[in-house]
């Protein structure tokens, strides 16, 4: 016997904060244009690297917005969960873009170490400060929403990296201005590349967990098992599955063995209500499925999972 507590998947976490992403996209694109022009005029590789990173952020936000729209399409017989996993694929694309950008920046910086070009620090410093201010604004826009969605978290981490990159460019400009040490620009470029990689790896690891249907972070399967077993009439629970469709959409299913006398119409309904209430208090999900099995049937079950 299966019981689906809720058949509505609802809007995804990214979709709920779409306006925030649009605002960040507008701010980011505006600064990218200014930084690219500033990099060309000043000859600064670190400023160009920061602009390239921000451009990848803009691409990532665009992908996230597109994915949020796709994920909102209704489910069908062929895709029973709809297109909600599109958001996870977008987060995967963001992580890969970050890795490629960092490698390109690092390679160009190494090439420049032998003969660093002269940099116009005035333009470089102005564009870097403008980028830092814009990144601070974007961080404030995304600060609360990033806890709910992988895509928004990816955008938040990218903007945070941009802020650090802008600070690195500002420091490099100040060093060149005060000491004439032109290689400071190239060193800042390497630092920007090195800052990108850990964030990309963190996002990639979270995406892989979702695609491999790992249990959501903070969820203890054994604790959930113990709470289900504490419900009156339950004798055993097996084939527990806990996974995430996309950010903010966890799913739970389990086979629950109950006393034979419980499985009448009224008893089964009351038991399911208790199980759903119990699960809801310990695992935040609107989509849970229980298969109720009489104890006398348990010997026919092959337990292949937890």
UniProtKB/TrEMBL annotation:
The keyword Ion transport applies. Its main location: membrane. Residues 216-294 form the Cation efflux protein cytoplasmic domain. It is found in: Membrane. It comes from the Bacteria. It is a multi-pass membrane protein. This is Cation transporter. It comes from Arthrobacter liuii.
